[in-house]
Amino acid sequence: xxxxxxxxxxxxxxxxxxxxxxxxxxxxxxxxxxxxxxxxxxxxxxxxxxxxxxxxxxxxxxxxxxxxxxxxxxxxxxxxxxxxxxxxxxxxxxxxxxxxxxxxxxxxxxxxxxxxxxxxxxxxxxxx
Amino acid sequence: xxxxxxxxxxxxxxxxxxxxxxxxxxxxxxxxxxxxxxxxxxxxxxxxxxxxxxxxxxxxxxxxxxxxxxxxxxxxxxxxxxxxxxxxxxxxxxxxxxxxxxxxxxxxxxxxxxxxxxxxxxxx
Lengths: 128, 124
Prior knowledge:
Chain A is an all-alpha fold. In chain A, 77% of the residues lie in helices and 0% in strands. Chain B has a single domain, classed as Fumarate reductase/succinate dehydrogenase, transmembrane subunit (3 helical TM bundles of succinate and fumarate reductases, Up-down Bundle).
């Protein structure tokens, strides 16, 4: 069987990697990560409903270095999804959809994520 | 030539027979989640070192319990819609697609019910 070599439309590998592409896929990646985050939330609630011992166990896990790494990832994913999600809502209204504005809001989303994550950890653990 | 008007194709139809419902629901949930997420994070960061009874007292107050229940239900609904969309976009095998749709629905339902039960047990 002969294969006809038809022209194909350019796909991802053709384009120069740009911040808006990174944010686009990071929005989905952070969304999936937050799905994992809901497991932490339900663990916390079940531990609270089960009593002081189970809650203490949960606290021990979360205060370990691995727990803190996971929580830091959770915070970052949440803030990124929040900031970029708000931008998506503006896009849905047709606001800021041009290239120049998108380039500016890219920076805003990254900055907002960093600031909000730092703020949450400063209040939560007294450290950045 | 079809005598159907374009609008009749849009209204509740299309290949998935649901029109723009999925997208629209995702957006409504997203709008609700903005203030709820800010409330959730602002509350939780104050309790990183809190003892059991402090957290229980906080979650037992009607305002906290009600907001937590609303947050859980809407967040898990938003999660289910988002994960479903990702599976529809990237998983092409029919068997795997059905498997993941089941897993998403079952998983989100279990987490939602377990969370609601826990909050009610604490608050009531």
